[in-house]
Amino acid sequence: MNVIKTIWGTLLDFILPESGKVQNLLRFEPGEMRLLLPQSPARIPNLNVLFDYQNRQVKNLVKAIKYKNNYSLRKRVAGYLYEEMMSLAEDITLFDGAPPIIVPMPMSKLEKRKRSFNQCEELVREIEKLSNNGLEVGYDILQKIRETKRQTELNKEERLENVKNSMRISPEFENSSKIQNRVVIVIDDVYTTLASFREAERALLAAGAKRVLGIFIAH
Asked: What is the model's pTM?
């Protein structure tokens, strides 16, 4: 099944290519492509961010993954996220005594139905493949339990209020040792005000997580 999805994804990327400049990025080796894209200037504790979203190429790349589920770009960017994660995971395992658990930023059921996929889940699946299933992943741990307005339409204060109490831990994981005293890494595509991440952090800490870290494609 995974092989069929991989072939189909590659075929769709060929038939329905993104803008030429974005597709041209894939002609470079992964290391070269990463160096070509501007690094994020964001320096916030507990957050790792790859690229600067103000750059047009980065913006187009994120949109291709977020809205079109571009397989080739998703696979390439998942490799970069994996590198960041493994660097964090080594330190977490050493100093916290247990490896982190990886959680994708959730979508509401309606959002996912409309788009037919959650790009953060897709990225985590690629990361999991790269680890040969060596990472502990929780796809269903964090749930988005109510619809929210599009964050891009709101100012900072409105964004915080918009997502307030919109997430929870899945009932089956409440009081679970899978979360208790564990470091959790949340994977997301872009942040602007960190409203969604802070809401995810709130829900995870309330369930007993020791710390919550975030890894993003861009800011």
From this structure: 0.89
